[in-house]
What we know:
The complex is a heterodimer.
Chain A: E1 2-4, H1 6-9, H2 23-35, E2 40-42, H3 50-61, E3 68-72, H4 85-100, E4 105-110, H5 119-130, E5 134-140, H6 144-152, E6 158-162, H7 175-181, E7 185-189, H8 211-224, H9 229-239, E8 245-248, H10 253-264, H11 270-276, H12 285-288
Parallel strand pairs in A: 1-2, 1-8, 2-3, 3-4, 4-5, 5-6, 6-7, 7-8
Helix pairs in contact in A: 2-3, 2-10, 4-5, 9-11
Chain B: E1 10-16, E2 31-32, E3 35-36, H1 37-46, E4 53-59, H2 65-74, E5 77-81, H3 86-95, E6 100-107, H4 115-127, E7 132-134, E8 148-151, H5 152-161, H6 165-169, H7 173-177, E9 183-185, H8 202-213, H9 221-230, H10 232-235, H11 245-263
Parallel strand pairs in B: 1-4, 1-6, 4-5, 7-9
Antiparallel strand pairs in B: 2-3, 6-8, 7-8
Helix pairs in contact in B: 3-5
Amino acid sequence: MVLGTVQLGLKYGINNSHGQPSREEALGILERAYEQGIRMFDTAFSYGDAEEIIGEFITRRKLNGQVQIISKLEPNCVSEGSENVLSIVENGLRTSLRRIGREYIDGYLLHTSSYIFREEIVNALHQCKIKGLVKNIGVSIYEETEALAAVRSSLIDYIQIPYSVFDQRLNQTEFFQLAKANGKKVFARTAFLQGLIFMTDKEIPDSLSGAKEYLKEFDDIICRYGLSRLEAALAFSASQPGVDYIVFGVDTIEQLNETMSVAASLGEHFDCVAALRDRFLNIEKNIIFPSLWKK
Amino acid sequence: MEKVDQSKGKVMCILQARMGSRRLPGKVLLRVQGVPLLEREVKRIKRAKTVDKIVIATTTNKEDDAIENLAKRIGVDCFRGSEKDVLDRYYQCALLYPGFSSIVRVTGDCPLIDPLVIDQVISLFRRRHLDYASNIQKETFPDGMDIEVFTRKALAEAAIAARLPSEKEHVTLYMRRKRKFKKANLAAEYDFSHIRLTVDQKEDFEVIKFLIERSRLQDGYRKYISLLIKHPEIMKKNMRIMRNEGLKKSLKKDRVMARNNVKT
């Protein structure tokens, strides 16, 4: 399990009634995550103070070398036809390194998924790897075509994908087989669709009212197996053998505790996962892409 | 089928090595896994398909008996010549092996030299009928992958015409400076020039030791690079050491000589 840290640096998530946690709360969440055995943290330049908070946590607790950090390049920072791509990418990475307070990090990803098609940007990332600034490079993707381009690229190590009960698009492609064959590490995010998956009908905003029927169908399936939404969603993401890590976010320590305790005692739940598999295949993108949600 | 061109002639590799080193004395005989670095380097050069003979060229200094002994033990010829005038050492050595029309120059501080890159430089040299080919005219390979190939003729001309101390100490400086020699450079796929795979200082040896312990004799330089990428803390150990420290020193000597000439 990898802890996503966007919530620590920004007010984020549709089901976030707590707002952005204070710095002390954020450090408390990181501390608790570490105690629970989490050793990898996912952050990004664009996650507000998240990089600095992680840096402060590592320095305070002297955990240098004991936790792995993945960050991401600022979105849309390389304009079309830009000549100094390497310096843009390298400066972006160096800025993140400075904020985190490390000489190098474990992973650095492109936050703009379409950049996977821009050879000069992927090459620039690779050059940063050769310079010893980052051990693994990759991309965070949205679309199947991007995922397939990433998994076929010889330079890419890490691929972060959207994958959940409600977003099974990549199961319909050869992505997971190729990822295994090509030795890519796959990180699945949005197992809970930013918390949408936990909302009651009343809490769901009008703009996403289309999600209600899917959640009802979801409830109908999982109640037959006696699973909670959290258990079923986590079991579903974890059951895909092509997923190496699940990236999840929390707003509070309580959510972290709950998620981790479910994850720790997560059975295989084969029957429920099988029943969920290949359902919800035609959900509108404005429901499964949090980036398209009206803010 | 590629036709064998007899006019290509045979290739000998002259590997220059000595015990003296201000920064890390005896570095070429430091051992990793019980094997001296110089022996390891010879074993790797032997894997190059286009090199027909290897000769270690060391100095006449007493301390370099150790190098001659190592050469004897592993069955490689050893030549002993001038310590300071390395160009002359190469020339005198080459004169003893008249059957080789092309000479590869490799230095004893590159235990991880890549035989495949040696073959690539030689292949470029032959394909374009050059006087001099290397992968150092524009530095893109890691430091410690330095490979130069030149004709016997170019070496002879350099040995006779070179005057400056730097040109005598650095065998190919004269050839590289003269326009008349036809030259080309082999570039790496990416810029690896900040990576040090050479042994010049204590930190370099730590890096080399780390890499040897985690690789096989037949691995290429890309293997070392991927190991270093996975261990940036090792890569950073020696990254701040300047490349070609020695050359900078002898260029300074040239300036001293130039000044003295003005005075007299």
